[in-house]
Amino acid sequence: MAYPIRNDYPRPQFERVFWLNLNGAWEFAYDDANAGCDNNWFEGKSFDRNIQVPFCYQSELSGINDKSFHDIVWYRKVVDLPSEFAGKRVILHFGAVDYEAKVWVNGHLVACHEGGHTPFQADITASLIGTSANSIVVRAQDYSKDVTLPRGKQYWKEYSEQVFYTRTTGIWQTVWIEAVNSAHLSSVRLTPDIDSNKIHIRSFVEGAEIYKDLILSIKISFKDELIAENAIRVIAQEEEVSIKLHDFNDHGLGRWWSPEKPNLYDVEFMLLDGEMVLDQVKSYFGMRKISIEDGVICLNNRPYYMKLILDQGYFPGGVLTAPSDDMLCKDVELTKQMGFNGARKHQKIEDPRYLYWCDKLGLLVWGEMANAYQFSEQYMTRILNEWQEAVHRDYNHPCVVVWVPLNESWGTPNILIDKRQQHHASTLYYLTKSLDDTRPVISNDGWEHVKSDIYTIHDYESREEILERRYATPEQSVNCDPQGRRIILPGFSYNGEPVQLSEFGGISYIQDSSEGWGYSSAKDDQDFLNRLVAVMRPIIAAGGLQGYCYTQLTDVEQEKNGLLSFERVPKLPIETYRQLNAGTMPILEVQMISK
């Protein structure tokens, strides 16, 4: 079998020239007895298996395809560095390793990280032995049965059931190396301000103290036209500047970013010591504002109705890892073709390449944490740390318009009566607002909200007349309890915030001989269409809602309620879905679903 190699640049918002992709074949071993550290496997022991990185061992594309529990796994790869890396600092990057990782280079421990969805890196320069035959060893430890672990849809049993899917253990996003000078740009934070037509830039320079006359040059262009240029003297590790964009950007005729017009500005950062270029990074941003004005969700100061699809982010053959960048792009294209203007990435911090395509092609994204299922002190430490890393990683993406730290009281199952769990949900809300005050935050998507910028509801009712009554006004909406859960917890009140139906539909339609489930089921194409119309028509017309999120984009393993199959084949014509979202379906013999 020919295995795909993920060779796309893994961090498209912070791109350097000199980098080395380490995806592909690695040596691999299970360590069920937890003997590896005691026996010094990190010193360069050869392992008895091969695995295709970045695919987890549970996936077909890894070359292993083993669904059984193996919570400790080891990787090894011998790497030769390009000649361009000579004399530079060498940084080793991991996009994501689930759940704990330790990394050794030539027997030296260089990194430890906890959190299965967020990136980490290590300066490995001091551990290298020249440019040839450098051994990189990774030990990854998962906790498959620990329900206090932030895990999203990964099941704590060996085989998938209902809404829970195959686990991911170990490396599942790209591994790469890049070369930098001792003084280099470590990160940037880009905050657009469309009201003043400025971009606010915070830059962070590693090694700034080494040089006395560092200059950070910033060039901003739009479609190769230079729009603005600035240079700031780097005195401290962190510097900031606001740059006026000298172009027309008003009345929808300019260069604001939206799903309909995904305009992006390119940015080139150059770190200079006199005439010598120490670092060069390419990035981009979108001039976009998401706000709530007098209870109305606005995009770029204008009311905006969100039509979202729930996207689980699972892929044939790869589990959480897309087989190719083309498939990530295809998911965005299909979502837009069906008439949706956004996606709720459900219980997953998605690959940055997906967010890149949403930025580039124009698709709103709700950034959602992968939750645990039970509450504990260790759970709180885990989620608070990893969620901060996620918000930091994705802050610059214009497509990300809402943060969702909790879903359906996962991790806080007794939130209705447990004050500690209520305080935890409130902490996540206010922590997120403190990390990013430019985007709305949903405290607990679906029900049992504490303070929330948008009140969201999950409702899999299939009868049209009931949906019509439930969501006629915002007040009716927040006072319904479709899943037997209060929408807003006692002690918290509704004060005119926007209301959205962030899960509904979930209609199962199986077109082959396989088995599966959904929240309701259709027997043929016409029945599927009838049922879709019965749930979408009243929701689109509902006066109490400012948007919706249909469940879901694709089938996933045994869950068969996608508009597309798991292989991304539409179950009905794409144009039919588009007309449904537009509310412009031609007259059809559609029966109201009453049972």
How would you portray this structure in words?
The chain contains eight helices and 31 strands. With 595 residues, the chain is an alpha+beta fold. The protein has helices spanning 325-337, 352-361, 377-394, 419-435, 464-470, 474-478, 525-541, 574-582; strands at residues 19-21, 24-30, 49-53, 72-79, 89-94, 97-98, 100-105, 108-114, 120-123, 134-141, 170-171, 175-180, 184-193, 198-206, 214-222, 225-233, 238-244, 265-273, 276-285, 290-293, 296-299, 302-303, 306-311, 342-345, 364-368, 400-404, 455-458, 499-505, 507-508, 520-521, 547-551. 47% of the residues are buried. Strand 15 (214-222) and strand 16 form a beta hairpin. A seven-stranded parallel sheet has the order 26-25-24-23-31-28-27. The chain has a six-stranded antiparallel sheet with strand order 3-2-4-10-7-8, with no helix packed on it. A four-stranded antiparallel sheet has the order 1-12-5-9, with no helix packed on it. 16% of the residues lie in helices and 30% in strands. Helix 1 crosses helix 2 (352-361) and helix 5 packs parallel to helix 7. The two termini are 48 Å apart.
Quick overview of this protein structure:
The protein is of the alpha+beta class. 16% of the residues lie in helices and 30% in strands.
Keywords:
single chain; 595 residues; alpha+beta; seven-stranded parallel sheet; six-stranded antiparallel sheet; disordered C terminus
